[in-house]
Each structure stands twice: as structure tokens, then as C-alpha cells.
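Case study.
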Amino acid sequence: MAHFDENAKPFSNKWLDERIGLNTLKRVLNTEYWIPKNINFLWAMGMVLAATFGILLVSGIMLLMYYKPDTNLAFDSVNYTIMSEVGYGWLWRHVHAVGASIVFLIIYIHMFTGIYYGSYKRGRELIWLSGMGLFVAFSAEAFSGYMLPWGQMSYWAGMVITNLFSLGSLDVTGLVEWIRGDYVPGDAYLTRFFMLHVMLIPLAIIGLIVLHFGTLRLPHVNNQESEEIDFEESAALWKAGKRKESKVIPFSPVFLSKDVFVMGVYFILFFYLVFYNFEFAMDPVNFDPADGLKTPTHIYPEWYFLWSYEILRPFSKDIGLIAFGVAQAAMFFLPFIDRSPNVAPAHKRGLFQIWFWVLLIDMITLTAMGKLPPTNPTFATIGLIAAVLFLAMGPILFIITMFEKKIEKGA
Amino acid sequence: MQEEKKGRRDFMGKALGAWVAVGGIGALYAMKRTWDPLPSVKAAGFTTIDLADAQPNQLVVEKWRGKPIFVLKKSADMKKDPRDVVVGDDHFLIAIGLCTHLGCIPAYVGAEHKFKCACHGGEFNASGEVLKSPPPSPLVIPPFTIDGTKLVLGEAGPEFKKLKDAGLIA
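After joint prediction, the assembly is written out as follows.
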């Protein structure tokens, strides 16, 4: 057996270090986890997301005490019990709804930051892939959570989304009924999506967050110039007291204090929305109880799914489904579609910079068109063009990055 | 000796792997079955409608597997159609009352003998055929069987199969 100091006080630093390697942990995860100095507030989005996830978890646990996953009870347990009987129940619900919506805004900012600065490129592919895994898991979490109040939008969104699994003309109704546990969304459906929402998907998310952090540890965080930093050299400078000359700072406490500042600003906005403008996260149609014999006149998803909805909608059933599937999967392959060896911010990469802004504007256009009813022919045409453009962006990226001029180091 | 040990360890490793795989597959099957619709849900998947009470040109909406079912007895002045369900001398439209476009429930306008969908402007005639797009196909006929004047939904009877074989049902 290893030697343990008999004089170490229980739970003192030394006592813990001998038992769980506390000092090693602190060194690897905090004091000697080096972060480049040359970054901006966009690099704080990761911790902002972690904090938002924490808030969703806490508010979710509170809601869980009174929510009832039963088609007869669910609607009232949310809209009556939690909203007007439970002390501060309204707070948890509004925090949860606003958090679920805003978390996607931050995810999109986080993703586009990564695309702009080339943070998915050589050495960082696994960060991108685990991040995309998180995006899918968060999407599933958002959808399953949307079912729980069992209002009209819950029911009909559930109907439409699970219908996608009939795979168009292949008409695999057996699979759809298997997913639902019923011919239409019913009690079995609600309870299993409740299970997914509060147990299986959150577990997957927590696992993926650990993986995402893990994939980041060795390649280190990217920086504004995508400069290849000699971390050992810079770390030695920092440790020798030459903090000004060093290109890096320790994650904790130095970088974390910057993160906390950005979080502070973010949470002012967040709680402003929670207390004064929560309606944007609560669709009025969902305040009607679910009714399988009455379709709402206009079914649309929450804002963060509109861009993919608009890729599904302008085409005929089967082509739309294929386009939708391709669009969902394509993002995963970004590190492999981009053929250029340059790890550089978009503004140094010629055509890639144009590609980046076109992608961003195209996704915003798809989002806007997805919200409008499909009956207006002008908007339907704009939506169709934007959807086709989105699908073309992958091959376009492949070609333009093949011919991208190699940036010489030190240039 | 070393080689022999390695071979033995490999074999034990594979045997353990195979054994665990059998258990794993069994567990996956059990999970699949747990997700299946319950027998009670499946048993509730049949709806019986008595067609004897139906009045001509008056739409009756029944419920089958959570979906609205249109039952429309045709009056003498309404066009007959090969998709009609015939009971005795009476012709009926039997269809799932969901627009084939995006699943809204069309309303019946008796005076015009038309179904009109408020969502995106689709129209169907009294036989469920599309008069005005966007719906891509006629109203869907659910599996049915005829028992005297009673119609049982959820079971594919000979009349349903005949329509299906004739290519009148997708």
C-alpha cells in the first residue's frame, strides 16, 4: 500500500491530494490548463452554455416535483398547479422556457465562432464532432421537452415530427407507431418522451459535455489569429513570472474571471427576458389543451428549428425529406469538407470569408421564411432558393477550399 | 508456454465477449418490445360504426386510432365513385378526415358537396378526390370490413382488399 501521512488532517489539502490527487487535478484542469491571451468575448460562449445548462437542470428539477406525465393531467399540472399553486412555480417554468430558447442562440453563436476562426480544423476535428453531437442531443432535448405541457402545439409538433420517421413514400408506419407506442401521440408517447427528456437525453448531454471538454484539452483553445502557439514555451514564461511576454494565461483563475464577466452580462439579458419578456418562449397556441381532432391552422416549430424546417418544406414530400436529412448530417462533416490546410480566421482566407457570410445570411433567411405561412408565393420562392443554396454550400466549400492559397507561416 | 497462455487468454476473451453479446442482444430485444404499443392500445385500435343511422349529405365524424373519420352518405344527386363503400344500395364516403397535405381537418360544405381545408386552401369533392391543390393525393381510406350495416375500422376486409387491388387506395 502507498504511504499516507499519518499527521495529515482529514480533508486538508495534503490529505485529499494523497487520496485523489487533488493537486494534479487542479494543475491539469485549472492552473496549468493554458488559454491563449489573444481571444475575445466569443470564446466565453462555452462557459455561458455550461452555465445555461446548469440553470436548465436546476429549474427542471424544480418543475419535476409537480409535473405529471399523463395525458389527462399534464396540461393542468403545468398551467394550473405549477403556474398558480406552487410557490415560485412560474419562475422555474419561465426560466426553463427562456433557457431552452436562449441556449440555442448561444449554441449558434458558439458554432459560427468555431466556423469563422477555423476551430474545427486539423487537431480540433473531435471538438467539432462532439459539439455537433451536443447540438443533436440538445435538439432532441428541446423537442421532447416541448411535448410535456401537452398543449395543441405539443401534440401536433409531436404528430408531424414522428411522422417524418415514416420516411416519406416508404410509408414505414410501423416504425412511427413503434416510436409513439400508439397509433397517434397518446399516453404511452407522453410518458416515454418524459423519460427521454428528464433522464436518457440529459445523461447523454452530460457525457457529451465531458467528451467535448476532453477533446479540447490537448489541442487547446483556438485564438483570434488561429496562431499555432508553443504552449510549453509560453507556459514556462508565465511560470517564470514573465506574464507579459507569455502568450497564454491559466484557465483558472485568470481566464475564468473573464468568463464570469461575460456570464454576468449574459445573465442580465437572460433574467431581463425571464422577468419581462418571457412570452417569446411560450407559444400562445400551446395554451390550448392537446386535441387530436382539431389541427391548429398553422403549425411551425420554435425559432431554432425554423431553418431546417424551411429546408423540408419547399420540396415535394420525398425530396424534402432527403434534403432535410442531408442538411442535418452535412454539418458533421465540416472538418472533412474543408480541404484547405490553412488554420486561419475567415478574413484571411479569401473566398472562404464570402462563403461564411453567405452561410450565415442563408440560415437567417431560411429562419425568417420558415416562420411565414407557406401560402405566399414570393416568400415560398425565396425559401426554395435559400434551401437549394444551403444544400449547395457543402460542395461549394469543397471546391473553393481545394483552390485556397496556402498561407505561409509568419506571413 | 507463453504462446499457449496467450491463445488461452484470447479464447477466454472471445468466449466472454460472445456471452456478453448474447445478453446484450437479449436486452436490446426486451427494450424494443418495451417500446411496442401495448396490447390494450392495439385492442382499442378498432372502431365500429353503424351506417344505418346515417343521413344523406350529412357528414358524421367518428374517431378511429385518434384520427377523425369522415362518414358521408351520398344523396341521389351526388356523383358515385369506385372508391365508395357500398352497403346495400347506399353509397358512402369513408375516409380519414385529414388533409393529405399537412394533416389539417377539412370542413364539409354540404351545399357545394365539397371539403374545404382552411389551412392552405386545399379542396376535395364528396368522394375525397382532390379538386384544388396543395394536397398531393385523395383523402385516405382506412382499412375496414363490412358486417351487415356495421363498418369495422382497423381490419382489412374483402371490400377493402378489392379497392386496394384495383389500385384505388395508395
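Observations recorded in class. Chain A has 16 helices and two strands. Chain A touches chain B through 28 residues (CB under 8 Å). We will return to this complex in the next lecture.
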